[in-house]
Design goal:
Layout: E1 5-9, H1 16-28, E2 35-39, H2 45-52, E3 58-61, H3 79-84, E4 89-92, H4 95-100, H5 105-117, E5 121-126, H6 130-134, H7 138-152, E6 162-165, H8 179-194, H9 198-203, E7 205-208, H10 214-221, E8 228-231, H11 238-248
Helix pairs in contact: 1-2, 1-11, 5-7, 7-8, 10-11
């Protein structure tokens, strides 16, 4: 049985003080019978690792470089460096990276591979824009995004990876896919993996992201193919985030 997972993506928010506050709240809220990972800005990774040490809470980076090897890449941060800080996870392919930094599906596949090579657990984000959603292209977009990652990585990679479905039109908008909509897309993702390997498709954890909050978490997480959430804004509200973690554990 797949264990529920709740991940908090802090995006470009934080300070030394806020990192301590959020980590303390998440660890104090344990135990909940779910896996929990926080994704602070890279500058605060090491601090977060030390803050949650011994609690069972994981720490990850919000992005990794496409370059797996050290080199003359000013400003880049490699997966090896992230692992060296003690973090164990990395988000790849977030819609904000795809849109604002022009990351291609090819780039995302390379980042996924770089994260794996360094021993990190990749959290692969996939999802459609509002125009793609209203045009009825959701599944087509998801299929393309998954296929690009599988070009650079074997299906076995998903045994130790997570996929997060984040409809772009729901991120930070206050809108959220209905539980039925989320389940429909998650079932499709699992079926796509199943074309390569049925057993791996059943093992891979699929998260929903897009205005997840305490009020809708339990209903979303109750869907058979929704294994938790990738939480954005609500992860910066300690009380709200702990409630979401508890909802996943019910």
């Amino acid at each position: 049985m797949r264990r529920k997972l709740v991940a908090g993506n802090w995006k470009m928010h934080g300070s030394l003080a806020l990192t301590s506050e959020l980590c303390e709240a998440v660890t104090a809220g344990k135990p909940y019978d779910v896996d929990v990972v926080v994704f602070p800005p890279t500058l605060y990774l090491r601090q977060a690792v030390l803050e949650v040490a011994g609690s069972g809470v994981g720490v990850g980076a919000q992005d990794v470089s496409v370059h797996a090897q050290d080199g003359a890449y000013t400003g880049e941060i490699s997966a090896r460096m992230i692992a060296d800080c003690g973090a164990g996870w990395a988000i790849v392919g977030h819609s904000e990276r795809r849109a604002d930094f022009r990351e291609s599906d090819h780039d995302v596949g390379r980042k996924f591979a770089a994260a794996r090579k360094a021993g990190l657990t990749p959290v692969l984000c996939v999802g459609e824009t509002h125009a793609e959603y209203t045009g009825g292209h959701t599944l087509e977009v998801i299929e393309r995004q998954l296929a690009a990652v599988l070009e650079h990585n074997p299906i076995e990679a998903f045994v130790s990876a997570v996929i997060a479905y984040e409809p772009v039109w729901a991120i930070g908008s206050g809108l959220s896919a209905t539980p039925e909509q989320a389940q429909h897309v998650h079932a499709f993702i699992r079926s796509q993996l199943g074309k390569k390997d049925a057993n791996i498709s059943l093992l891979t954890r699929l998260l929903y992201g897009g205005s997840v909050k305490a009020a809708n978490a339990a209903e979303l997480f109750a869907q058979p193919d929704v294994d938790g959430g990738l939480v954005g804004g609500a992860s910066l509200n300690t009380e709200e985030f702990v409630k979401i973690c508890r909802a996943a554990g019910t």
